[in-house]
Amino acid sequence: CSKEHYWFHLENYRGAHCIIKTEDFSQLTPRYLEAIASMLRDHSGLEINEIPMLFSQLKHVKGVKGARGQVIIKKPKYLSCVYINWKEIISIS
Predict the structure, then answer these.
(1) What is Dmax (Cα atoms) for the chain?
(2) Which of 82, 45, 25 is closest to 8 using CA atoms?
(3) Which residues contact 13 (CB under 8 A, 6 or more apart)?
(4) N or C: at which end does the chain have fewer Cβ atoms within 10 angstroms?
(5) Residue 92: predicted pLDDT
């Protein structure tokens, strides 16, 4: 991954994260962002319909030494998305 790519995670929940390999955030339409949030929700085992998500470029995400799975995010951005059937929009290889 490039440091310019984008990292996504559910805000205030433990669970999955996702890296989108694009340097142009404008390519991610609101529908794609809802799909990303919905995928994270499902892969985190949650049953929520309003999904709080945070994201940042990878260059602003740093792992916490000695704390597996914890990160510090500088300059996070926040979104609230509604759950959709993401499997109709994206596929995981």
Answers:
(1) 38
(2) 25
(3) 44, 46, 52
(4) C
(5) 62
SS3 59: helix
Distances (CA, A) of 68 to 38, 47, 53, 57, 65: 24, 25, 20, 20, 8
CA angle 70, 29, 92 (to 5 degrees): 60
Using DSSP bridges, classify how beta strands 71-73 and 50-57 pair: parallel, antiparallel or unpaired.
Answer: unpaired
Q: What is the pLDDT of residues 32-85, one digit of tens each?
A: 999 999 999 999 999 999 999 999 999 999 988 988 878 999 989 999 999 999
CB contact set of 56 (below 8 Å; sequence gap of 6+): 6, 7, 73, 74, 75, 76, 77
Question: Looking at residue 32, what DSSP letter applies?
Answer: H
pTM of the predicted model as reported, rounded to 2 decimal places: 0.88
The dihedral sign for the CA sequence 33, 38, 41, 44:
negative
